Amino acid sequence: FLMQRIATFLFILFLAALTGGCATTTPPAPVRDARATPPQKQPSPEVIVPTPVASTPKAEIAVAETTPRVASAAPTLAEKAAAGKPDAMIPHIGLLLPLNAPPFRQPAEAVKLGVLAAAKAQPDMPAVRVYPTTDQVANILAVYQQAIEGGARVIIGPLTKNAVTALAESDISAVPTLALSVPVNEVASPNLYLFGLSLEAETRQVAQLAASEGRNAALIVTASNALGKHLQAAFGEEWQRLGGKIVGQLSFTSNTDLNALHDKLEKLQPESIFIAANAQEARLVRPYLSAVIPTYATSLTFGGQSDVLKNIDLTGVRFLDMPWMLQPDHPAVMIYPRSEKPLVIDSERLYAMGIDAYRLAQLFFRGEMPSRGVVLDGVTGQISLSAGRQFTRELTAAEFQADVVVVLDNAKP
Questions:
Q1: In terms of pLDDT, which residue wins out, 407 or 13?
Q2: Cα separation of 391 and 162, whole Å?
Q3: Rounded CA separation 353/109 (Å)
Q4: C-alpha–C-alpha distance, residues 390 and 196, integer Å
Q5: Range list of H helices, 36-128
């Protein structure tokens, strides 16, 4: 009996050890709370698509935020890049400006801003590629060739008279080229067209305006400097060509006795007066001229609508300027944005010239070669193509009246 009880006791101990070891070897599985936040996914890596850039390092790509499309359905920069093709020969409008020449950097920058503003306002038009140059003829001609080789179908520029003269004499213009100045000699190349802000052409229009209003005997009052003499010569030549008579020419400086000048004017008894001077000089002499004799001047006397107090000194003076400066509600002017950064008055006019230069370049790019006559209702005036492949601008007439400038709707040069 004793042996049986010992065997039973040992069996119970064996079972206890066996069940206790199984309970402690595997921990209980965790219970998930249905209300708990589900596990978060790891964020995917950001994919960055690079913007295509020019393969030619010397040429700066300057396009609208949406790359303009060429009217002939040529591939855009993005389409070329997507196809794995080089962009060196993408058809575009080349803009050749002396941005690397310190004396001309400011006017060149103003023209550039205007061209790019026009491109952004019309995103379905051809792209623009900017080709900076110095003011050296060799560099300008070399960069011009680079633009042609880079796929430029039309070129805007050069900007300066010397550069345009060199280009005209080189006879290398292989594509339609819209030069922004007038060369010294006549243009022979059939691809070279001229467009710019010619002060001489504007002065002739002032003479035409005075003649159209029935004036005959004119007195020219001239600032004694190179600019005044240049304006005097241009007005006098056109005035006599129109059959008018010049009764006298009076010059002045800041030291001139202007009362004595006034006395001379009264003895001459002119029917009209032309002031050959800039804004500051015109404001100096104007109070000593007759308030009843019709008086004319160029856009150089107009410093903008903000110069209210200064404009008062010029009351009664008639002048010509572009719609961009005088008519903000003009249909063509309203389309295009003003420069984001303030521009001085001369740069503002160059900015407007850049807008119209791009619009003219579009015509060439689309193969719409302009013919003689009115071509464009521009922000710089009514643009026509005249002899010698030169684009001329018909400006807007206005008059200083106390503290405002009033557009003369019925006045035509």
A1: 407
A2: 19
A3: 12
A4: 9
A5: 77-82, 105-121
Token pair belonging to 171: 């006879």
> Regarding beta strands 245-252 and 295-296, do their DSSP bridges make them parallel or antiparallel, or are they unpaired?
unpaired
Residue 327: exposed, middle, or buried by beta-carbon count in 10 A (0-12, 13-18, 19+)?
middle
Reduced to 3 states, what is the DSSP secondary structure of residue 321? strand
Given a contact cutoff of 8 angstroms between Cβ atoms, the answer to whether 252 and 223 are in contact is: yes
Residue 193 in contact with residue 177, Cβ under 8 Å? Answer: yes
Crossing angle for the helix pair 345-365 and 105-121, to the nearest 10 degrees:
50
Relative to beta strand 217-223, strand 245-252 is: parallel
Q: 34-72: string of b/e by CB count within 10 Å (b at 16+)?
A: eeeeeeeeeeeeeeeeeebebebeebbbbbbeebbbbee
Helix (H, G, I), strand (E, B) or coil at 397: strand
Token representation of residue 275: 């002031």
* Nearest CA-CA partner of 77 in 46, 56, 97: 56
Residues 194-227: pLDDT tens digits?
Answer: 999 999 999 999 999 999 999 889 999 999 999 9
Residue recorded with tokens 């150089």: 300
Residue 128 backbone class (left: φ over 0; alpha: ψ -120 to 50; beta: rest): beta
The two three-digit tokens of residue 191, written as one number: 């691809």
How is residue 343 annotated by DSSP? -
Sign of CA dihedral 228, 99, 355, 173: positive
- Average the pLDDT over 153-159 and give the result: 97
pLDDT at 148 over 70: yes
Helices (H), 83-149: 105-121, 137-149
Cα separation values, 240 from 42, 208, 250, 310, 413, Å:
85, 11, 17, 32, 16
355's enclosing H/E stretch is helix 345-365
Cβ burial 253-290 (10 Å sphere, 16+ → b, else e):
eeebebeebeeebeeeebbbbbbbbbbebbbbbbebbe
Which residues face 397 on adjacent strands?
Answer: 320
Mean pLDDT value across residues 395-402: 94
